[in-house]
Amino acid sequence: MTVTPVAFVDALPSEPVARRLLDDYFTSRELGFTGARGYTIVHPGDAQFTPPRGVFLVVEADGVPVGCGGIRSIDPGDAGQVRFEIKHLWIDPRARGAGLGGALLRELESRAVGFGATQTVLDTNASLEAAAGLYRSHGYTSIEPYNDNPNATNWYGKAL
Description:
Radius of gyration: 15 Å
Largest sheet: 7 strands, mixed
Strand content: 25-35%
Distance between the termini: 30 Å
Order of helices and strands: EHEEEHEHEE
Number of helices: 3
Number of strands: 7
Oligomer: single chain
Shape: globular
């Protein structure tokens, strides 16, 4: 299935369309999460996704919001990398299979490079096998934990 045209629209996490997508994302995580501690929901603040510290994007397919994701600046790595973290990358299940997740990931990486990033990092949970496959297929490799996210079991990084 191919969905066209696709647009990436800058939004703040608090804007209604972004908030609705994030709520859908968090609901899907709660329903499918297999962690022993349960799933901890933390709604992102606008400041961390405001340029040049980061950006939050809404994915539109044929003018309909179908996904979201963001990048935010985090502390430099041990080797002094300029790091941006990918957060809340999600595509509505009804729009999956059209390559939108990969397109969003590439767009977020491009935006990170525009902000001066030399590395992107992200965390995920082992139960999210499709997400891990997406990240690996786009050049992400396992790294040591860089945060203490209670939902995360796997951490990935990619040099840009």
